């Protein structure tokens, strides 16, 4: 008998090794799929919490007359971007391709800084709405999730980036829809 036909316990060795390989491959595949599902579930749970915080904080700031108009426009755009998958994906690609270090703070950032002393609740809620909205945007859609870690690292490097980020949101909104969407329709209706 040659080596290929050598049997172990009356079964050809080749057949046993094939079965063992197939079982091992399926086990590895199921483990990977299971791990991916667990990770995605955690991402969606985090996105759900971030969305709730975003909408709660946005509701508190959008109707406040002390909020600078440009900051309000950026927040409205962010609310729409968070709600629409195509807009969200487009924003994330634009945001991640843009060199944040070269960004200047929005012209209204000084107004927000002054409000920090007189209306700290407004500034804190604006920051909460901005950050939780961005986190939700990155974690809600699978195509955006891969950028979340880099976004987090860049954000950690400079925690006073609300105005820069809001300015990027406003600029992207203008590049997609022009100066203003005066028709009263949502931006999402245009995609």
From TrEMBL:
<feature type="transmembrane region" description="Helical">
    <location>
        <begin position="12"/>
        <end position="32"/>
    </location>
</feature>
<keyword id="KW-0812">Transmembrane</keyword>
<protein>
    <recommendedName>
        <fullName>Transmembrane protein</fullName>
    </recommendedName>
</protein>
<keyword id="KW-1133">Transmembrane helix</keyword>
<keyword id="KW-0472">Membrane</keyword>
């Amino acid at each position: 008998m040659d080596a290929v036909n050598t049997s172990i316990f009356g079964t050809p060795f080749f057949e046993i090794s094939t079965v063992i390989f197939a079982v091992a491959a399926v086990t590895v595949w199921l483990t990977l799929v299971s791990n991916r599902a667990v990770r995605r579930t955690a991402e969606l749970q985090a996105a759900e919490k971030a969305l709730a915080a975003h909408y709660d904080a946005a509701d508190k700031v959008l109707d406040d007359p002390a909020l600078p108009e440009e900051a309000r426009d950026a927040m409205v755009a962010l609310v729409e971007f968070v709600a629409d998958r195509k807009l969200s994906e487009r924003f994330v690609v634009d945001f991640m391709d843009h060199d944040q270090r070269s960004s200047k703070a929005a012209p209204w950032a000084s107004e927000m800084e002054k409000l920090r002393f007189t209306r700290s609740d407004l500034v804190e809620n604006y920051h909460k709405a901005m950050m939780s909205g961005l986190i939700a945007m990155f974690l809600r859609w699978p195509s955006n999730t891969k950028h979340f870690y880099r976004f987090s690292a860049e954000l950690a490097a400079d925690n006073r980036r609300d105005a820069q980020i809001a300015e990027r949101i406003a600029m992207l909104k203008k590049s997609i829809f022009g100066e203003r969407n005066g028709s009263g329709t949502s931006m999402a209706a245009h995609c």
